[in-house]
């Protein structure tokens, strides 16, 4: 009797775990209907109804399995009814309760998304109907929209020009700062004895080196021209 009860418990638990996995898979499919708010249909589609019906059916089947597990555990003696089985049964109940809450949440999200989409569609339809019945007002609204777009463009251009002016002004400040630093360096160099002579000798050496290099290049060019 104990072996048969153990086998029945294991089979029921296996079915419960399998249905929990199926529920998770269906939740993923069902949640997609709430994420497509821009293309959601005005009424539930057959696919949406089918997934929701499958979820409700599986939840009911899991409820039945939990009842069977409960009766099986109650029929066992206090010695054979282990704490592990009791914990497993409690866990199945908790998961079932969480999944019922998740189904209610997803159903609420889909309904809210459908209500928003239907409201937006109704408003657009009313606006189109009003404009078709009042062409003069529709033209005025169009001109007003164009004016708003132009104003927004002008505001954007003004913002860009303001930034450009600020950058240009910053460059001017930097130039003045660099010029001031250069004047200070020149002034400090003039105050150090012999620094001007040193700078002059360095400049003369650079010019002499440039002349020598230029002459060498000219000589090489002439050699190549006459002997090439």
Keyphrases for this structure?
mainly alpha; 5 helices; 90% helix; elongated
Structure description:
The chain has helices at 2-35, 46-75, 83-133, 135-191, 195-227. Helix 2 packs antiparallel against helix 3 (83-133). It is 90% helix and 0% strand. The relative contact order is 0.06. The protein is elongated and about 115 Å long. With 228 residues, the protein is mainly α.
Q: Level of helix content?
A: over 70%
Q: How many angstroms separate the termini?
A: 114 Å
Percentage of β-strand residues: under 5%
The number of helical elements comes to 5
What string gives the helices and strands in order? HHHHH
Biggest beta sheet attributes: none
In short:
With 228 residues, the protein is mostly helical. 90% of the residues lie in helices and 0% in strands. 6% of the residues are buried.
Q: Which SSEs are present, and which pair or pack?
A:
Elements: H1 2-35, H2 46-75, H3 83-133, H4 135-191, H5 195-227
Helix pairs in contact: 1-2, 1-3, 2-3, 3-4
């Amino acid at each position: 009797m104990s072996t048969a009860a153990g086998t029945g418990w294991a089979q029921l638990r296996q079915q419960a775990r399998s249905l929990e996995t199926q529920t998770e898979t269906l939740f993923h499919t069902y949640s997609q209907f709430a994420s497509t708010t821009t293309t959601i249909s005005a009424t539930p589609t057959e696919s949406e109804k089918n997934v929701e019906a499958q979820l409700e059916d599986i939840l009911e089947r899991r409820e039945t399995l939990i009842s069977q597990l409960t009766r099986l555990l109650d029929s066992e003696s206090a010695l054979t009814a282990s704490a592990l089985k009791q914990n497993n049964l409690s866990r199945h109940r908790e998961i079932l309760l969480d999944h019922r809450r998740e189904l209610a949440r997803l159903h609420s999200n889909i309904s809210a998304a459908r209500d928003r989409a239907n409201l937006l569609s109704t408003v657009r339809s009313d606006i189109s109907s009003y404009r078709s019945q009042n062409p003069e007002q529709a033209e005025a609204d169009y001109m007003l929209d164009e004016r708003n777009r132009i104003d927004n463009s002008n505001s954007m251009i003004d913002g860009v020009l303001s930034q450009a002016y600020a950058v240009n002004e910053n460059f001017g400040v930097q130039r003045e700062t660099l010029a001031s630093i250069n004047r200070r360096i020149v002034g400090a160099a003039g105050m150090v004895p012999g620094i001007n002579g040193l700078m002059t000798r360095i400049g003369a050496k650079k010019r002499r080196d440039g002349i020598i290099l230029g002459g060498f290049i000219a000589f090489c060019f002439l050699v190549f021209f006459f002997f090439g």
